[in-house]
Amino acid sequence: MKEGYDFIVVGAGPAGLMAAKTAAEHNLKVALVERRKDISRWTRADCMMFYGLEGGFLGEDIQVEVGKIIFPRNGFAVSYRGGLYPLYNWRVLSPGGQRIDFTSEKPIAAVFDKGVLLRGLLEDIEKLGVTVLTGTLALKAENTQKGAKVLIKDQGDKYWLEARKVIAAEGINSRITESIGLNKERLLMGRFKVVQYIMEGVENPYPNSWIQFYGQSLSPFAPLHFLQTVSGERLQKLGAIRPEPGNPEDDLKQFIERGPYASWFAKASIVNKMGVTVKAFMPLERPVTGNLLAIGDAAAFAEVENQGALMCGYHASNALIKELEGENGIEDYMKWWNRSFEFLNPEIQRISQGYAINPYYEDEEIDYLFSLLEGEVFAGSINQYKIPKMLWDAIFRHSERIQKERPELSKKIGEVHKMTLQDAFTVEQEE
To answer: What is the DSSP letter of 204?
Structure first.
């Protein structure tokens, strides 16, 4: 057993680094455990955006400025010395070329360099005296009489680290969350693969845009996503997702070579590839057991997004600091957690499933539905829960026409909108 710490933080993404930084700023003795050797080298599939610059996203009005990211409602800021690329539009395209635009005169998101963000946070915690253990695997955690402990593997050697509090922040595939028993009652919705190509030479007619390509022929499970990187139009990112054992790279290759938008990629080349395989669970309403708190993606449905991860790290550390001081900080954190993230709202969970387009609608049906909104422009946002509702609310204005022209499609829409997220994934698993 190695020397004791006040906090052990497992995972050096935005959530873990922010948690370690916040704790160290309160003069606590902190150890950060990370399996990657180079914390600033990020290879996991990630869109690397700060969302919701229009305000109100995740209970925050985030402000992205040169040199820092400000969280005015949450009361903190983070240094960031990298580049930024603004997005003003969310565009959705059908297989037949129908397009719907959600647009704003002001940025609705900013693409950033995640490696720069992580490097800056790492420099901060090293100056604060945090013990950083890179290339080290956290195998499991257990609660103890005086706190909690984490079994780590470092260069082939296994040993326990002990602390008063442990924060699991190592992402959606968290070993610690699993080992401590927090996943026992969670619905496993499936295992998914994500692949993203970083490409140069793409002739994209829609700069400053997050774009989704709908259609079962393009990607049967979820729409393909496309956006510019922090390098702007010089380097752009195309991604796909598939449930295992499917291979999303097959979708990307087909789309680039033979899809309806293949002309965009005629002169393009792939300069990098990013990927991730994830287990997607329903979110934890109360991600705590004893002296261990799971935060960020480790407790979420899929992802909390980059700014959500930073907020989780900040609030988690402050909550556990209160606990060490004899106050009920955990309850404060739980209230904030359940209030801030939309995926914890059962109604939002229903909407997010019922308002899905892939995989329920055929290509021709998507073309038809999108054609109903031809010429309309909607308020800009990159909120994955808000945009589908806006889209379908607009389609529903044409319900009588759909019923008259396409009665079978009208019936299908009604059936899909009755499904819950749990219903949909349970059916998929049974099949």
So the answer is: -
| CATH number of the domain enclosing 227 | 3.30.9.10
How do residues 153-185 score in pLDDT, each as one tens digit? 998 899 999 999 999 999 999 999 999 999 998
Q: Are 148 and 39 within one domain?
A: yes
Q: Residue 200 — φ and ψ, nearest 5°?
A: -115, 155
- Rounded to 10°, the helix 407-416/363-371 angle is 100
Q: How would you label 393-415 residue by residue, b for 16+ Cβ within 10 Å and e otherwise?
A: eebeeeeeebeeeeeebeeebee
What pLDDT is stored for residue 302 in this prediction?
78
b/e for 170-199, b at 16 or more Cβ within 10 A? bbbebbbbbbbebbeebbebeebbbbbbbb
Query: Confidence class of residue 3 from pLDDT cuts 50, 70 and 90?
Result: low
Amino acid of residue 156: G
Pairwise CA distance, residues 124 & 77, whole Å: 13
- Closest by CA to 1, choosing from 118, 100, 109, 144, is 144
Instruction: Report the alpha-carbon distance of residue 230 to residue 379 in Å, rounded.
Output: 24
pLDDT digits (tens, 9 = 90+) for 200-258: 999 999 999 999 999 999 999 899 999 999 999 999 999 999 999 999 999 999 999 99
**Could you read off the pLDDT of 405-431 as tens digits, one per residue?**
999 999 999 988 887 666 555 444 444
The answer to whether residue 204 sits within a structural domain is yes
Measured CA to CA, the distance from residue 320 to residue 109 in angstroms comes to 31
> Is position 58 within any domain?
no
Average pLDDT over residues 51-77: 94
Helix (H) or strand (E) holding 378: strand 377-379
* Cα angle: 64, vertex 284, 130; to 5 degrees: 55
For residue 265, the enclosing domain spans 88-104+188-278
Question: What pLDDT, on the 0 to 100 scale, is given for residue 325?
Answer: 96
**Can you tell me the distance from the alpha carbon of 295 to that of 356, in angstroms, rounded to the nearest whole number?**
27
pTM for this prediction: 0.94
Q: Both 126 and 217 in a single domain?
A: no
Q: Residue 227, Cα to own-chain centre: how many angstroms?
A: 15
Backbone angles phi, psi at 258, to 5 degrees: -135, 0
- Residues linked to residue 131 through DSSP beta bridges, in sequence order: 31
Give the closest residue to 377 by CA, choosing from 99, 102, 91: 102
* DSSP string for 292-313: EEE-GGGGSSS--HHHHHHHHH
